[in-house]
Design a protein that fits this description.
Chain lengths: 414, 603
């Protein structure tokens, strides 16, 4: 009955809010711009007129729309032309840089900025395919909450060393269909008991999908006695440490969707299964995803997000510049803009994207803080507050992902 | 004209060789950019340690053969049953839209039809089945890969059908069939002895293409194949996408193995052909006629000429003159086999069309949960939002597809004309053999193949322009155009050209005013096929075009990774309609141009 009324009310609120964001944002940027520059000035001058090709996963229309907004802004403010190199998977971009290096194309590369984290970052850094360090030189980097969000410093325990600039944070969130599940299981023992009672209604994306791999790591966190070992590289005791994980999976798989013989290939596919009613659970890395997917219709209105009792794995995602980028200055200007309170606040808005910020909001100037207060004030169906998210656990060392994936494939196939 | 074959080869062979190198060198451990300067067998060894490798290869080959055999049987049975009737025209109309739909869209639609939460079950739930929640059926993905095979068959049958139709128009098969029937053979028997061997000879290359595609495609595999055992193409993709860059060498060796799998499968198929051919020849030479048994249904190749074949038939036939079959009887009626052939192909069409129609419905759905058979809430939001942004990529798609297909068609025409003109038989077969190389892009896994081309382009600092993208599309468009046009061209009765030349027309004039108009229909069909292939291409657009030229397919695939079925529905619909338009034109234009000449306007 009041559904439509509340919707239009929300829309009005958003309109007012957006105008406010815009006004505040422009004044804010004007002030910070003058305060922090100095050395970065030169970069900005060089950047003017450059075209920046930003290689980024393009699977979400919301994110694509956000990037279009960023493109409009950086063009207006800094004269930088930002173009979205739409990708199906980040590895396409990594391979392209590798191909360029193979052909000896060490300058004027096709990619200027790349959306990246974790293993892709590690391998690019190891193969010296990245430009840097640049991240700490960005004026807006001083707002980043390095202290309370350690994932912005260590990407999957690998120190970023300024070779990538944080963009957003993420945390593994379990999604359940509230219409089917009264009380979602809060740890893995409960999950197993639940799955045995409700056969075929749980599943997870098959590794090497990164959500699937994260589920394995998450399960390991919950089952291992001392989670401290996970921060170190894998050692000889891998089999011993992971033994409880495999015995857990051996019990879980037969009572999973398709009897554990097939798995969804990615988390969007699993959301689809949840929406179709085949399974009751899904997983995501973006806490804002539940609310925005409900709004979009890719998840049912009864879908809710939750985290396990002992917390779930959290990490951050970044932007990096390939070593042979053509517009390194432009890329830095864009990376700096992505860190601006205005861009970060807009990104956090569930209507826009719903990706949590990397900034320390309490350290921001007051005017900027109100931007963030506005977003948190909004209540949406399926929205999760910081309290809902609980404790975020650090990513294990990347060697764990690698070994877990390999072992999983050996045991359960691709 | 004389330079057409060498130019084609140059345009193609160099990149193909580079593509091959990009597979072979890293496969044996050579990848300087990663600091690997020495050849080794390490990547191979690592590949063979991959779990489920053997079962994956076996599963892949099994599915590939199943899809190809079923497709062939359906197409040949249809041709046997309805070779020159109205039914063929009707089927052609039904199958044309399927040809223009991208594989990924068909796979998605078929998946949605047969899933435990799929549309077929939604139609009868909960009223008949009592299901209020999806049941635990292993229907999508099914453990045997049957759904995967079905989706492939739905796409392959229209393709083979089109080629068969084209090559059948090319010869005077109808006369041969009537002659055989006149000699007292039942229609089916006559078809298998007289028409099929010739038809099969012309279809061999397209069938190999289908086989290769069934063994190596990714789009359908990602949507419909089970996780365990994985299809080899998916295994390959997983290794490729491994964040550990050193795995690229393992991926290259997997790509190498995939090429081997395809070649092995073609070799097996060829042995099968020869086997069937031998059995058939022995049977024919014995001259005893036993009626229509199992073996006579299997396609075979017969080396001897039409005349000899007919003569043998006549001899064999003489011994059973008292057959219960009579000429009129068989001409007038369709038997059970015919009905089965017709039903299976129509069934396929219906499934395929249903699968496609469901996609646009999805694009208007806001909420559509099991067991509702239609969306519970509708919304046009998605179309309104994306329509404006779709125009530019659509434009790009059209420009690329039109230019790539036009260039490819011109090259094909020149090559074929040159082939007709060259007197030297040896040179002709030689250039024919060399032109086989243009089919290589269909066999080598795209990712590694394109990696090689990328390195080639970077090495020569070729700037990323639309031209380069068009050329990269041509690599994939040309083989298909060649496949569908080649036999028509070669099958055209040369006496027409001879007559024109006797009347004083020079060769170019003859080509322009006799050959091309006579081949209007196959030319347009080949062109439409080229458009369909180009529009559906993803990897070359993104990898060679460096994302600079977004097309509807590159946008669709990128968005698909976000898994919104509705967006996919909208894009798939657009992807399908564009080539469909060209197929419709290919049917329509000859009818209008040749409306006064029934023979030219064709079926």
């Amino acid at each position: 009955m009041s559904h439509h009324a509340s919707l239009s009310y929300l829309r009005n609120c958003t309109l007012v809010f957006l105008t406010a964001v815009f006004l505040l944002g422009s004044s804010l940027c004007a002030t910070t711009a003058r305060a922090d520059h100095g050395e970065f000035h030169k970069t900005e001058d060089k950047a003017r007129g450059q075209t920046v090709w930003f290689a980024a996963w393009a699977g979400s229309e919301k994110i694509n729309a956000y990037l279009r907004w960023v493109a409009d802004e950086v063009k207006q403010r800094h004269g930088v032309i930002l173009k979205h190199f739409k990708l199906e998977s980040t590895s396409d971009a990594v391979r392209r840089v590798l191909a360029e290096k193979s052909a000896g194309k060490h300058t004027k590369g096709g990619i200027d900025l790349i959306w990246i984290n974790g293993e892709n970052f590690r391998t690019m850094k190891e193969q010296k395919l990245l430009f840097g360090p640049f991240a700490n030189r960005l004026p807006n980097a001083k707002y980043v909450d390095y202290k309370n969000k350690p994932a912005t410093r260590n990407d999957f325990t690998i120190p970023t060393d300024g070779y990538e600039s944080p963009w957003g944070t993420a945390q593994l969130v379990f999604i359940y269909d509230g219409a089917r599940v009264a009380k979602p299981p809060k740890n893995l023992k409960q999950l197993l008991a639940y799955a045995k009672k409700n056969k075929g209604r749980f599943t997870y994306p098959s590794p090497p999908d990164f959500i699937g791999t994260t589920f394995l790591k998450q399960a390991l966190y919950d089952l291992v006695e001392d989670s401290g070992v996970l921060a170190r590289p894998v050692d000889d005791d891998f089999d011993e440490i992971t033994k409880p994980l495999w015995s857990f999976l051996d019990q879980l798989h037969p009572v999973m969707w398709q009897g554990g013989r097939s798995f969804p290939k990615s988390w969007p596919k699993q959301n689809q299964l949840l929406n179709d009613g085949e399974v009751y659970f899904s997983l995501t890395f973006n806490p804002g995803d539940v609310a925005s997917s409900i709004a979009q219709g890719t998840l049912p209105k009864s879908a809710r997000g939750y985290v396990l009792k002992r917390g779930t794995i959290g990490n951050a995602h970044f932007v990096a510049i390939p070593y042979n980028a053509n517009a390194k200055e432009g890329a830095q200007v864009v990376a700096n803009f992505l860190l601006s309170p205005e861009a970060q606040a807009r990104k956090g808005d569930l209507e826009v994207w719903g990706d949590p910020t990397v900034l320390a909001v309490n350290k921001l100037p007051k005017s900027a803080r109100t931007l963030f207060a506005k977003i948190e004030g909004e209540a949406k169906v399926g929205a999760m507050s910081a309290k809902d998210l609980g404790k975020s656990l650090p990513e294990p060392h990347p060697s764990w992902s690698e070994r877990l994936k390999k072992e999983w494939q050996k045991r359960y196939g691709g | 004209m004389r330079f057409a074959p060498p130019v084609t080869l140059l345009l193609f062979l160099v990149p193909i060789l580079c593509g091959l190198c990009a597979v072979l060198l890293p496969a044996f451990g050579y990848f300087p950019a990663l600091g690997l300067h020495a050849f080794s067998l390490v990547p191979m060894r690592e590949l063979f340690e991959t779990p489920f490798l053997v079962s994956s290869v076996v599963f892949t080959i099994r599915c590939g053969f199943l899809a190809t055999v079923i497709s062939c049987v359906i197409v040949f049975s249809v041709f046997c049953s309805f070779a020159h009737g109205k039914v063929i025209g009707f089927l052609r109309l039904l199958l044309a839209p399927l040809l223009s739909v991208p594989h990924a869209a068909v796979a998605l639609g078929i998946g949605f039809l047969f899933a435990p939460s799929g549309w077929l079950l939604r139609l009868i739930s909960p009223q008949i089945t009592g299901f209020t929640e999806p049941p635990f059926w292993l229907t999508n993905p099914d453990p045997y890969g049957l759904l995967y095979v079905l989706a492939l068959v739905i796409k392959e049958v229209p393709f083979l059908f089109l080629i068969a139709l084209a090559s059948q128009n090319a010869d005077n098969s109808q006369k041969a069939l009537l002659t055989a029937q006149g000699l007292g053979y039942p229609r089916r028997e006559a078809f298998y002895h007289v028409i099929l061997p010739e038809l099969y000879r012309r279809m061999r290359l397209p069938i190999y293409t289908v086989l290769a595609f069934s063994l190596s495609n990714l789009e359908v595999a990602l949507t419909l194949a089970p996780s365990r055992p994985p299809l080899f193409s998916r295994l390959l993709l997983d290794i490729y996408n491994d964040p550990d860059l050193l795995k690229q060498t393992v991926a290259a060796s997997a790509a190498f193995v995939q090429v081997l799998i395809v070649l092995l499968a073609i070799a097996i198929w060829r042995v099968g052909e020869l086997l069937v051919f031998n059995i058939r020849r022995q049977r024919l030479e014995r001259g005893r006629y036993k009626g229509c048994n199992f073996f006579s249904r299997i396609p075979s190749k017969i080396l001897c000429s039409h005349e000899v074949r007919k003569h043998r038939l006549l001899l064999g036939r003489a011994k059973i003159r008292q057959s219960k079959y009579t000429h009129q009887h068989k001409l007038a009626q369709y038997n059970f086999g015919d009905v089965l052939a017709g039903a299976s192909s129509v069934g396929l069409c219906i499934l395929g069309i249903l699968a496609i129609v469901l996609l646009p419905i999805w694009s208007f759905a806001k909420v559509w949960r099991f067991p509702a058979s239609l969306p519970q809430e509708w919304s046009a939001e998605l179309w309104l939002e994306s329509l404006m942004r779709i125009i530019e990529p659509w434009n790009t798609s059209l420009v690329i597809a039109l230019s790539a297909s036009t260039c490819a068609l011109l090259l094909c025409v020149f090559c074929l004309e040159q082939e007709t003109r060259s007197k030297n038989r040896l040179a002709r077969t030689y250039s024919n053999k060399a032109l086989l190389a243009i089919y290589l892009p269909l066999v080598i896994p795209q990712i590694s193949f394109l990696l090689g081309i990328q390195i080639l382009l970077f090495s020569f600092s070729v700037p990323v322009t639309m031209l380069v993208v068009i050329w990269s599309h041509m690599l994939f468009v040309l083989p298909y155009i060649f496949l569908s046009l080649g036999d028509n061209w070669r099958g055209l009765d040369q006496r027409y050209q001879l007559t024109a030349q006797t009347l004083g027309s020079n060769r170019n004039r003859t080509m322009l005013f006799v050959t091309l108009p006579m081949l209007l229909k196959p030319l347009l069909t080949a062109f439409a096929l080229g458009i369909a292939v180009s529009i559906a291409l993803y990897a070359p657009t993104v990898l060679i075009g460096a994302g600079r030229f977004p097309t509807i397919t590159s946008e669709a695939v990128a968005l698909a990774s976000g898994g919104d079925r509705r967006l996919l529905g909208a894009f798939a619909f657009l992807q399908a309609t564009t080539p469909c338009l060209f197929f419709a034109l290919a049917l329509l234009i000859p009818r209008i141009v040749w409306r006064k000449y029934a023979f030219m306007a064709g079926g």
